[in-house]
Design brief:
mainly alpha, Growth Hormone, Chain: A, disordered N terminus
Length: 408
């Protein structure tokens, strides 16, 4: 169960969020997600052009997720024992260098580089999440996590379109995309080095982990309930993004117009994350997460009955609004629950929920589409959102409790 909250002092509630360190972390995570946003639509097209089958492309893409999941507990341990700044920088450096390897037009090399990129992705997200957990004022963690995730969603929404334009507009488009992705990764690594030189925050210090490297020190049990919430939230994300182009084709819509679904959702997500995160500071994490799940459930209900582009876009806007509010509150709750001495481990445990949820969601929803069709799949997805809402309220116990604050 998630513990009853404690009140933060008035002084801490007035602490500024936008310090140089926090701004640098936001820039670094934007560059990381810009890197990933460029490569997400490009790698499958590139492999297909090299003659890879759909099955082989799937394996090459799965390599990224497999390594990102498998190494994450160890990444969390090393973040605590070594350095959050160092782990974020190393992760971004790996992202940048693997992008250069993609320029070698060999399928096996690309698959191996993508697996290594998963290691960099785990290091980047764990390191930057840990830094935000340390930097954000305890009484304003919801708002801070909203702004931080705004940079993630902004890059994820904008860069795929840029990648597809480069590939279509230039004969050397793939090389240009890989070079840009490398530049984003390496620039992000350079930005993380600036954080250590700004004395505006008490940044995490490396310390030996009691008990050494063993199973009990690789997982933060206090964050497991939040990880379960994140798994359910991420499962829905697969239904609301990965299958939308295929669903639109089934409806007879022009795929060029379907891009507006993602643009509209991206705009709502970017604009809403900060204010919605602030609401979780005021009204509590549990009610904010539950409200987000409720909006997501409504969005899936709309998708189950959608038959036109306006209906599809309306559902996307409602989904993005709900996801933005829920994710900001879930991330802040993970910050609240994390052991201050082992925040790297806590953030690694929490971020496992994203990778596991996306993988489980893609598998479950794909199977349901084959068995029942899209409308029924979205009704089941609506049920999962209702389950997430109910589970959140049960775990937080008090619907109108103030957020739990970890005192450092």
């Amino acid at each position: 169960m998630i513990a009853a909250p404690a009140q933060a002092s008035p002084d801490k509630s007035r602490t500024a969020i936008w310090t140089p360190s926090f701004a640098a972390v936001c820039v670094a995570i934007f560059l990381a997600y810009a890197h990933n946003g460029l490569l997400t639509p490009t790698i499958p097209l590139y492999l297909h052009g090299l003659g890879a089958s759909e099955g082989l492309i799937g394996l090459a893409l799965a390599a990224f997720s497999i390594t990102a999941v498998c190494v994450r507990p160890f990444i969390g341990y090393w973040t605590d024992a070594w350095s959050a700044i160092g782990m974020a920088g190393l992760g971004l450096m790996i992202l940048g260098t693997t992008s250069l390897i993609f320029m070698l037009p060999l399928i096996a090399v690309i698959a191996g580089a993508n697996a290594l990129r998963g290691v960099g992705w785990a290091g980047t997200n764990t390191g930057t999440n840990t830094l935000v957990a340390h930097i954000a004022p305890p009484a304003r963690r919801g708002e801070a996590s909203g702004y931080y995730s705004m940079f993630q969603s902004g890059a994820a929404a904008m860069l795929p379109l840029g990648a597809l334009w480069l590939v279509g507009a230039f004969s050397s488009g793939y090389v240009l995309v890989f070079a840009a992705a490398a530049a984003f990764g390496l620039a992000g690594a350079a930005v993380t080095r600036l954080i250590a030189h700004w004395p505006d925050q008490a940044l995490p210090q490396a310390s030996p982990v009691p008990g050494g490297l063993r199973l009990a020190t690789l997982i933060d049990r206090q964050v497991i309930p939040v990880t379960l919430i994140q798994i359910v939230l991420s499962m829905g994300q697969s239904a609301a993004s990965s299958f939308i182009p295929l669903f639109a084709q089934r409806l007879g819509l022009d795929l060029k117009d379907v891009g507006w679904y993602f643009v509209a959702g991206g705009v709502v997500s970017v604009i809403g994350r900060g204010p919605l995160g602030r609401l979780s500071d005021r009204f509590g994490r549990g009610p904010s997460i539950a409200a987000g799940f409720l909006a997501i459930a409504v969005a899936f209900l709309l998708l189950s009955t959608a038959s036109s582009l306006p209906a599809l876009i309306a559902a996307g806007v409602v989904y993005s609004f709900g996801f933005a509010g829920a994710y900001a509150a879930v991330l802040a709750l993970a910050f609240d629950r994390a052991n201050p001495a082992r925040r790297g481990t806590a953030m690694a445990t929490f971020s496992l929920g994203t990778q596991l949820g996306l993988g489980l969601g893609a598998t479950i929803w794909g199977g349901l589409i084959e068995l029942l069709g899209y409308s029924s799949m979205y009704l089941v997805a609506m049920g999962s959102a209702v389950l997430g809402m109910t589970g959140t309220l049960l775990m937080t116990r008090l619907r109108h409790a103030k957020p739990s604050i970890t005192h450092d």
